Amino acid sequence: MYGRSKRLLTVVAFLLAASVCEGARIKEIAFIEGARKNYLVGYGLVVGLDGTGDKTGSVQTTTSIANMLKRLGITLDPNRLRLKNTAAVMVTAELPPFVAPGTRIDVLVSSIGDAKSLQGGTLIATPLKGPDGKVYAVAQGAVSIGGFLASGKGAKVAKNHQTAGRIPNGAIVERRVPLDLASGGWLSLILKEPDFTTARRIEDAINRAFGSTVAQALNSGTIRLSVPEELATRPVEFIASIERLVVEADTPSKVVINEKTGTIVMGENVSISTVAISHGDITVEISTQYLISQPTPFSEGETVVQPQQEVTVEEEQTRLVLLPESVTLGDVVRMLNLVGVTPRDLIAILQAIKASGALKAELEII
């Protein structure tokens, strides 16, 4: 176990050291303002279920069925409907930017009632609306849950989640999201991870590429772009030229810890001040033994059981390791390997180093 942990920490350090930022394309660290996905949502009904729909008495399902049938010329009392093959669902989708009417997109169908399974169901035509309340797509089709549900008397077999599924290409786009590129000759470049140093580097890279002041960093997350006159009618060509530029993105010094899984991720700029580390485990084992006193045959005595507890304390012997100031991440991991730490031990050590004020990085626990 110790050897495996040592190899794991060494490999992590090697990979992080080898991934010293050699530069990334601007399209990977930033995007044009407005050119993003939009969320759509709608309420619909899945029909054709094999008795696994919402139970009798689900008001939202019976009312929806009655309203749908009324639009088709059939009037029924919702209170008299008995439905087991229908389920009320929420339908969600992501609308990519610049899609034209007629484009098909995937949708996710999720039960909002007490249906047991959506297996074999068909979604009835459902309008999907954006945050502005307008219909941007209409979804319909057979729901795929990628599993099954089979049940009998006292037994049930299920595979995958039964109350949510997808409809590949299940929605047709009906409305285009309005977006005018380079309106007024200006564009805004938005950084995915705002950083002043990265914003300045992007500004310099764009201005060097075009030989003029085309970009201006307004803050850590926004860069204003002025479209050159020769590309005023070709904004797509201008954006494509910018996206291909390579910039070295600056990252903050941060250590991210997930205590639930024992995962640790450290950035390449993490360093520490001079600190001495000693880490060891104390194991306390409590065991119970039973002493049995049994009387001789044909006597009137009783068998007596007396429990006795034994407590054993073992302390692991460790060495005190001195880490000098401003060591690199690789040095930190390599020296901690000398202490024989596991990933979970390393979590406790990093928290203690941060508490002492020696860790020159942000410590984030998720």
What's this model, at a glance?
With 366 residues, the chain is an alpha+beta fold. The protein has 7 helices and 21 strands.
Description:
- It is a single chain.
- A six-stranded antiparallel β-barrel has the order 3-4-5-10-7-6. It has a four-stranded antiparallel beta sheet with strand order 2-11-13-12.
- It is flat.
- It folds into three domains: 2-20 and 253-281 and 317-365, no CATH class; 24-34 and 179-247, Gyrase A, domain 2; 38-173, no CATH class.
- The protein is 22% helix and 35% strand.
- The longest helix has 17 residues, at 2-18.
- It has helices at residues 2-18, 26-29, 59-71, 196-210, 235-243, 329-339, 343-355, and strands at residues 24-25, 30-32, 38-47, 86-95, 104-111, 122-129, 135-142, 148-152, 155-159, 164-173, 186-191, 215-217, 222-226, 246-247, 254-258, 263-266, 275-277, 282-293, 304-315, 321-323, 362-365.
- Strand 4 and strand 5 form a beta hairpin.
- It is built from seven helices and 21 strands.
- Mean pLDDT is 78; it is low at 1-21.
- It has 366 residues and is an alpha+beta fold.
Measure the end-to-end span.
25 Å
Overall radius of gyration: 32 Å
- Extract low-pLDDT stretches: 1-21
> What's the order of the H and E elements?
HEHEEHEEEEEEEEHEEHEEEEEEEHHE
Largest sheet composition: 6 strands, antiparallel, barrel
Extended strand count: 21
How much of the residues is beta strand, in percent? 25-35%
Query: Strand sequence of the main sheet, in spatial order?
Result: 3-4-5-10-7-6
Q: In one word, what is the shape?
A: flat
Number of domains: 3
Number of helices: 7
Average pLDDT works out at 78
Structural class: alpha+beta
